[in-house]
Structure formats: structure tokens, C-alpha cells
Amino acid sequence: MNLVLLFEEDLVAPDRARLSGRRFRHVREVHRAVAGQELKVGLLGGRHGRGRVIAMDGDALDLELAFDGEPPPKLPLTLIAALPRPKVLNRVLASATSLGAARIVLLNAWKVEKSYWKSPRLAEENLRHQCILGLEQAGDTVLPELQVARLFRPFVEDALPALAAGSRKLLAHPGVPVPCPRDLREPVTLALGPEGGWVEAEVASFLKAGFEAVSLGPRILRTETALAALAGRLL
Predict the structure, then answer these.
(1) Domains of the chain
(2) Residue 144 pLDDT > 90
(3) pLDDT confidence of residue 217
């Protein structure tokens, strides 16, 4: 945790917060905070700054707050990711958030097992928690926009044109001879498929919507590895 992320309900006054639960345990056991110590803090959706520990007991600690900085800017990146298997979903969401993606869409695809959609990890509470972990890692305070699209064709044909308007539209697909571009200076909408790639009909749908098919080369990468490599290369 590189940032202690605070919520409105933590505030007991404009410049005071009381921290408990997971974040309190992390500060106590990992940061080994003591009275007088300063921690990097941020208010969800707002500014960041410093929090000085003024009191601590067995269940919570009290912080004196001073917000004086802005969160890091978001990448101009909309990530459209085929829903990964449940145990990978958490890592992908946290990684995309920590990288600074402004918008994340979890999309159905032919190679996405139907059982994935029944996973408790798709519960709104868990999706939000993973994004919060990504914010804590990156020192950010602003959640990405998050959308879940269970139907491929209606999303690509009806919602995607407006979503991707004004951006460079890229479809990541293994084996494509066109290399992924580098260091773009414009908003990007990136469609990242299952680990084996999109099926031909899905590729055709994205191309029809104005996407360019690109790749990182002949190797097939894990979703979270491909995401980090693509984001670093593009932006």
C-alpha cells in the first residue's frame, strides 16, 4: 500500500480521519506506524497529502490530515478486456487501475467460459475493491470508469462507436504482422482478448468498427502481462 486511501465515512472532521479494518492493520503491521509518524494519504475522488498519526489503539488509529496535492493524471486509455478467468480477473483490474486506465470494460467473447460470469468475483463490491487496491498501489485517488458488457455484438455495434470516438482504436491479437505502435500522443481504445486471442468473427467486428489489428509479436502472453506491455508501449 503506497497510499492510504480514505473515504468520506472515515472523516470525523475536515482535517481528521479514523482508520480501521484492513487499512488500519496494514498501517500497523506493515508501515509499523507510531504516534507522530506521517503517512501518504488521499481522499477517494479528491486530493492527496499527508496524514500524521495522532492516536492509536487496538482497533483503529486517528490521523491529522493535510491535503495539498493532486492525484497523478489518468492515461487517455480505454481498455476493453475479454473477461478473464476469475482468479486472473482481480489482477487484471488492479493492474489496469494502477497503470492509470481511465475506463475499463469487461466484455464477453467466444473463448470466455460461461461459468466465468457466475463467479462471485464479478460482484460489484469485489470489482470496486480490486480497483481500490490498484489506486493504493499507484498513489491515485480517482477510480476508473468500469463497465461490464455481457453481450458482445450489442456492445460492439451499439455502444462501442460512441465509447471509442476520437481515439486511436487498436485490437491486440497474437500473430498479427503489424506491430503495436509506440508512444502515441492521442487517446487510445485498446481491445485485449482472451489469452488465445479473439476468434475470426470478433476480429471482423472490431475491424468493421474501425479498429487496427496489432500485436507484440509471435508470443502468446498472459492477459496481465500483455496489458502491462501494451500500456507501456503505447502511452
Answers:
(1) 4-69 (2.40.240.20), 75-234 (3.40.1280.10)
(2) yes
(3) 87
